[in-house]
Design goal:
heterodimer; A: alpha+beta; Barwin-like endoglucanases; 2 domains; 10 strands; about 55% helix; B: mainly alpha; about 0% strand; elongated
Amino acid sequence: MNIWIEKQRHLIDFTLASLARRKGKNLGLLFIYALLVFVLASVSLYTHALRTEAQKVLAGSPEIVLQRLVAGRHDLIPPGYIEKIGRIRGVQKKEGRLWGYYYDSVVKANYTFMAPRGLQINRGEIIVGPALERSRGIAAGNGISFRSYSGELHTFIVADVLSQNSELVSADLVLMHEEDFRAFFKYPQGHYTDIALSVANPQEIKNVALKLMDALPDSRPILRDEVLRTYASIFDWREGIMLALLSAAILAFGIFAWEKAAGLSAEEKREIGILKAIGWETGDVIKMKFWEGLLISLTAFLCGYVAAYLHVFHLNANLFEAVLQGWAVLYPSFTLTPHIDGLQIATLFFFTVFPYTAAVLVPIWRAATTDPDTVMRG
Amino acid sequence: MRPSNRALLLLVLAAIGFALTFVDAARLRVAGAARVAETAALVEQLGLTDPVLFTEARYTRHLSQADLQSAFQDHPVALEHFPSGSLVPPPAGILQAYEHLDRKTASPD
């Protein structure tokens, strides 16, 4: 056993000396390789953590949200509509929700205005989300004016700022009293944006939704299960930028591996020829190159992964900010709880470390099994 | 120090770093449990439906409440033009319903 270990150590010594002869090329290779792993691991860690966090925090969202559609568009709930639902078995509570969007031309940002039922807010006061606090530079006790869509200026006192802990769901919220909301948007009395329904038994939700569609054919029920599924599949690798990123990375890796597998440089061939001529066995040459592939790919994987972890969970994935922010001015700054999917990491390991190690071995095996004289001359 | 020892030491350090990410993740999960619970409580209290990932367009701000047309309804033959629209698919439930309708036609039009 000791002899075997000593032999491998000598092979590694030799491999490192060989790599050091082409220091610039190999360090560049290691850097690009680690960068590739870093990008893929960052995307993988970020999306998995975000999906898991969304599932956890949205578990308490309304069981059913009922929208009314007019000509395929979301429309207001008119007076008497909630009453039309009547008594449906299993529905514990049904209440109209008031919320909408406001474009703040001062900082060119979009906010979500809401008049929540579950929170007591005095007239003339608002509670704002943490991103709004940052963008407008306001704090509790300050006054702030918004020009409504009808042109009137409405002034509110900031009663409180929502905790930064909940920024993932509250960054752009402006919570206000129902009457203030109606006055600000000139929302007609008795109208609502949509209806939230609580259903006690999860088995009943689908039946309730079917009954709602029977009673109100112009409505569209959105089940909590659908909301959760929407966020369970967000940033799926088959969609949008993930596919673009992944295909670019796979293509780059393919070119990279192909360059390795397609042939050896004249210098490498000569080296193998000399090794064979001085008495190395084919197996030794292959082992040496195996160590080369493994050392480079394993180092790149481990360094790339650790850097990706630090980027996503300690630096708030700030390299993705430009992509995720788009044209938005308000960008939520939330900390994700690390949820690492072992299978994803194992897949990443398998698809980055193994192909490279194998790609290094194939041409070496071809060169090492031919005559040293031919290899050196060729 | 022999080059092999240096390389193996580097690998061992990187492997320790790799293992430490899992330890750190467990630590952060425990530390962040209260934050997640607070966020979940706010969602329940206010009846929220969506996380604030993109604020630029209403159909990506409240992704689960959007429909398939909302990305294209600014004007006739409008194209979807917000960058975030290319990052996220339409809501899960509605996509299935549309696929279903699409396949209802037995014979080609």
